Amino acid sequence: MNARMNLLGGVVAFVLVVLAMSLFTVDQRQYALVFQLGEVKREIVEPGLHFKVPFVQNVRYFDRRILTLESSDPERFITSEKKNVLVDSFIKWRIVDSKLYYISVSGDEARARTRLTQTVNAGLREEFGKRLVHDVISGERDKIMDQMREKADVDARKIGVQIVDVRLKRVELPEEVSDAVYRRMEAERKRVANELRSEGAAEAEKIRADADRQREVLVAEAYRDAQKIKGEGDAKAAAIYGDAFGKSPEFYAFYRSLEAYRNSFGHKSDILVVEPNSDFFKYMKNVGR
Known about the structure:
Elements: H1 2-22, E1 23-26, E2 30-36, E3 39-44, E4 48-51, E5 57-63, E6 67-70, E7 75-78, E8 84-95, H2 98-105, H3 109-128, H4 133-139, H5 141-156, E9 161-172, H6 175-246, H7 249-264, H8 282-285
Antiparallel strand pairs: 1-4, 2-3, 2-5, 6-8, 7-8, 8-9
C-alpha cells in the first residue's frame, strides 16, 4: 500500500514538474521566441500564458520597449566648407521583429547598438558633408534629424529594429576652431562699434553745429526785433512828450527843472557848486509865479 502511494506521489510530482516546465508567461513589455534544438520554432508577440514542449524547447525573451542609444563622446564630422564640428546625438529604437532580430544579430543588444551607431554616423557624415556650419548648427538642424531618422530606419528594418527618433543634442565647433571664430567675431564687433561711434560723433557734431547756427540766427533776429521795437517806442514816446509839452512850453520848462532838482538833491551827501543867481534856481526865486 505504501509502495503504491509513493509511486502515485512520484507520478503526480513528475506530472507537476513537467507541467510547470511546459508553461511560461510573456509580459506585455516582451517578445518571446520558442527554440527547439537551437532552431526558432515560434515567435510570440501576445502577452499571456503559453505552452512549450518540456526538455526539448526553450524560450528566450526580448524587450519590446523603446530603448535609448546615446553616444558616450561627441563625434567629429566635416562640413562642406571643410570645417570640423562636434556632434552629440542619441537614438530612440525598439525591436519590431524579434525573429529577424535574433537571426541578424543573434539577439545580442550590443551588436545591434553597434550596427545602429555605424548606420547613423555614416548618415550624419553624409548629411553634414553637404551643408555649411550655419546650416548644421541652426538653419537645417530639424531637416537633418528627420532625414537621418528615415534613412537609418530603412537599414534598421533589415535587422528587425525600428528607429523611432534621431536627435542632435549638441552641435558645436572644436575648441581650437571656436577660439579662432570668437576672436574673429570679437574683432568684427569692435570694428562695427568703432564705425558706429565715428558715425555717431560726426552726426553729433553736425547736430551741434546746426543748433549753434540756429541759436545765433534766433539771437540776431531777436536783437533786431528788440531794437526795432525799442526805436519805435522811443519815437512814440518822444512824439508824445513833444506833443504834450508843446502845448505848454512854460510848464515843460518847469517840469524839467523839477526833474533836475530831484536828480541833483536826491542824497544828503550830494554837493552842488553853482552861483545863486543862476538860471538853475529861477523857479525857486520866483515861487509866486
